[in-house]
Amino acid sequence: MRPPGAAPGVRRLRYDYTQGPIGRGLLYLAVPVFMEQIAWNVDTIVEIYWVGRLGESAIAAMSLGFMVTMFVRSGGLGIRVAGQALVAQRIGAGDPEGAASLAGQMLLLHALYFLPLSLLGALLSEEIMRAFTQDPEIVRIGGAYLRASFWVLLLTDGIFAFASIFRAAGESLISVWPMAASSVVTFAAMPLFILGAGPLPAFGLAGASWGLGAGRLLGCAVMAAALLGGLSRVRLRPAHLLPSPELMRRVLRLAWPAGTQVLFERSANIVLVGMLSRFGPLALAAWGVGNRVNNMGLTPGYSFQGSGRTLVGQNIGARLPERARRAAWASLGASAAVMAVVAAGVFLWAEPMVRFFGMQGEGVPAGVLCMRVLSLGMAFEAARRTLSGVFEGAAMPAPPMVVEAVVRWGVLLPGAWLLSTPLGAREAGVWWAVAGSQAVGGAALFAWFVTAWQRRVRAMAARPAEGGSSRP
């Protein structure tokens, strides 16, 4: 039997995340999201590998440019987090049309946010780099890299906006294949753009951004076709992309705290990079490799964050608060168990990974120390991110935002300055401050979760449904 709203001839296996074993539902959601994150991290590995062949100045310039674009992407992340939570609630309430309408408004807001910022950033790229360093070589190559990154920003972030819709619908497997295809294209295109081949000129460091954009273009096109072609239970139509002020306000009410949370995190990272730049290109290069590997290691945490957001959101939409509570604990427990193993692996194999990504000579011990210190906070950071997804799935983004603001700006930055400058630990002091703040942040959000989250979820589930049926 064809599901309602499906395209003729399309057969799909659907899983109801408001029924059945929670562990199985979590597995069905987390594994595809993990595969999707692996595909994304292939792009990161390819980028670091080829940029590492250009020298430590290129790695340092990439680190600065990457932090800037991640900061700009904060608003986009807030929009898609809000979209995923609201779409998941509509799916749980049995309202696929309402889910499609919210998905369309989320994509529209995403485009309206990125288009002007991309143009402005491309025009001011070198000036932005000069705000962080006076090294003329880093400004030159970093400005070109940042300019290319801004031109493809709508694509590089847009693929995750599409993926968040499939996650909300509990159909993460659909987005894995476009993400994998995107990574295959990036794998082939990035060295060509960086080094040049035949009539294609060598773009150097900027080629990393152009190669990534080529892969993301394919991924976005395939995901858009899947949504418009009826391969998802969120059947998107062009009419859903027309502005709806009421729905846009609903997305923005949830998006601004989620976006502000990410803004606190990424603006603090920019300040950290500014601190590290005072200690020379070697410190920036060590941070660039160590931080990227740390983010790759957090992939399981990101997976459980996304799957927890969907599980909680759908069960809140279905008015099943007790099931939402058990889903939250299952997500947190699975994240903690997996991340303990991952963190141990990063600590033990730090040196081979640093060498693989192109660091040599005195850069090796600096990179190893950075990676090992950061690994000590990985499990806490993964727990915080998983809990953020749990709060966001229940449309409660304020607690993660408050914890982020206090920990990043009240603990991390003062601690990094104190350890690196007055106490003389230099760049190592920054890394220890990062790991310590991750432990504090994870503990703080966990305390909020066990004391207030369950009560709020039960109260929210008791409210009348918004536009659509709810299941008993």
Structure at a glance:
By secondary structure, this protein is mainly alpha-helical. The protein has helices at residues 22-52, 56-72, 74-92, 96-123, 125-130, 136-151, 153-168, 172-195, 206-228, 245-277, 281-297, 299-317, 321-348, 350-356, 363-375, 378-393, 398-420, 426-461.
Global Rg? 22 Å
**Continuous helix count:** 18
Biggest sheet record: none
The low-pLDDT segments are 1-13, 467-472
Fraction of residues in β-strands: under 5%
Average pLDDT over all residues: 85
Order of helices and strands: HHHHHHHHHHHHHHHHHH
Shape: globular
> How many strand units?
0
Structural class: mainly alpha
- Compute the number of structural domains: 1
**Fraction of residues in helix:** over 70%
Spatial gap, N to C terminus:
24 Å
